[in-house]
Design brief:
The structure is a single chain. Helix 1 packs across helix 12. With 416 residues, this protein is α/β, with parallel strands linked by helices. Helices cover 42% and strands 22% of the residues. It starts with a strand and ends in an 8-residue tail after the last strand. 38% of the residues are buried. The chain is built from 13 helices and 15 strands. About 7% of the residues have low confidence. Strands 3-4-2-5-1-6-7-8 form an eight-stranded mixed sheet, sandwiched between helices. A four-stranded antiparallel sheet has the order 9-10-15-14.
Length: 416
């Protein structure tokens, strides 16, 4: 379960409360924070370490230390790259040098999360991802990294051709042949891991994303944008938690104004976010700090509900990893894209809530990929074989559904 929201809306509190209630109801639960702000220890009112700490029966908590995770994973990674350094005569990369690479922290966080899931030690893993931008980096990295690896290290033959000048330049023997095998092995292993991460996180029967907001117009607007970005990348949201909601209880004139504003905002949120359920957590007299307060907070936020159950099925169906074949995020494999016959061609559709047509851009990349951009977010979709032999005729946005029309290219379509 991945919790995220705009900074300051109480995402860490909601994540910790959900984990606390789950543990008290009998699920062996780990709550971990990938948020650099490191607020989880303060909310739990318990010191945390870089390994899971049991803070009450069945409830474990951890603050992810990226440096420590890297040192653990580095022993494995060295095995893949060691032969490459030896053959090429280059010096091994230092741990500190890799730590500054863009995306390194996200890769390590995902590797650690996958290790915790694989361990089987926990029935529920709750992740406080911090702000939405960080959540999107975590969720989109596996597909993006797999895409780049597939093109940079595609197969034996192409890599060997790229390295053909190597022996002459380095004054060595069959460097190309010696380098190809470890390079492909390392890239293939990393792609395999990233695809497994993507498969776990995008499967709605195994993983959930929950967005936290406060009923204020700016926050609601940013949450809508987050829902759009998640839909583009194939991740559904099973619930939205509205936090710090003012109620009528003990209202004075000042509070009555906030009660009216929150009531109006929440009605609009429930209407526009449907069918995603919107849960409410009332503004409390004091901060929900410590396990007792967190459990009470969660019990009120999840009235009559299983806090770790799948609360809703809103959002698109999950898609698979980026590589080719079944589960490539393309139409017809359970991904967010759908393809249907339409007259003399095909119609490809993609659910994109809360989008204006002016925000959408499409680009055909070669014959086999379609790039969809929504504002600053973009994603490459692998097209099925039928659409690779078609031309794009046009596109339209209808009721939050992007529909792209394709017609067969007579020069590529087989005539019967």
């Amino acid at each position: 379960m991945l919790f995220s929201g705009k900074g300051g809306v109480g995402t860490t509190t909601v994540a910790a409360a959900t984990a606390t209630l789950a543990a008290q109801r009998g699920s062996r639960t780990l709550v971990l924070s990938a948020d650099p702000a490191r607020g989880l220890a303060a909310v739990l009112d318990h010191p945390l370490a870089d390994v899971p700490v049991e803070i009450e029966s069945g409830l474990f908590a951890q603050q992810v230390d990226v440096q420590r995770v890297f040192e653990e994973q580095w022993q494995v990674l060295r095995g893949y790259f060691g032969r490459l350094w030896e053959v090429t005569g280059t010096e091994p990369i230092d741990v500190g040098e890799l730590m500054v690479l863009p995306g390194a922290a996200e890769v390590l966080t995902l590797l650690h999360l996958l290790d915790q899931i694989r361990s089987g030690d926990y029935e529920v893993v709750v992740v406080d991802t911090g702000p939405v931008a960080q959540l999107l980096r975590l969720l989109t990295l596996p597909e993006t990294l797999s895409w780049y690896l597939r093109r940079m290290v595609p197969d034996d033959c192409r890599v060997a051709r790229l390295l053909r000048p190597g022996p002459r330049l380095l004054g060595r023997g069959d460097v190309a042949g010696a380098v190809t095998e470890p390079l492909i092995e390392a890239a293939a292993r990393l792609r395999e891991i990233m695809n497994e991460v993507r498969e776990v996180l995008s499967d709605p029967s195994r993983s959930s994303v929950r967005l936290v907001l406060t009923p204020e117009s700016v926050v609601v607007g940013q949450t809508r944008a987050a829902l759009t970005a998640l839909a583009l990348h194939g991740f559904g949201v099973d619930a939205v938690v509205a936090n710090r909601v003012h109620t009528q209880a003990g209202a004075d004139a000042w509070r009555a104004g906030w009660v009216a504003v929150h009531r109006e905002q929440l009605l609009e949120v429930e209407r526009s976010f449907a069918p995603i359920p919107v849960l409410r957590a009332a503004y409390r007299a004091g901060e929900p700090i410590g396990l007792e307060e967190l459990a009470a907070f969660a019990a009120a936020a999840y009235p009559g509900l299983d806090p770790v159950g799948v609360l809703g099925t809103g959002g698109p169906a999950a898609s698979g990893p980026a590589d080719g074949g079944p589960g490539d995020g393309g139409p017809g494999d359970g991904g967010p894209l759908r393809v249907e016959r339409a007259g003399d061609g095909f119609a490809l559709s993609l659910s994109l809530p809360f989008v204006d047509r002016s925000e959408i851009n499409l680009a055909r990349i070669g014959d086999d990929e379609l790039m969809v951009s929504v504002g600053s977010q973009r994603r490459l979709f692998t097209l099925p074989s039928a659409l690779r032999r078609c031309d794009v005729r046009g596109a339209a946005l209808r009721d939050d559904l992007l529909i792209v029309s394709f017609v067969p290219n007579p020069d590529l379509w087989v005539r019967v």
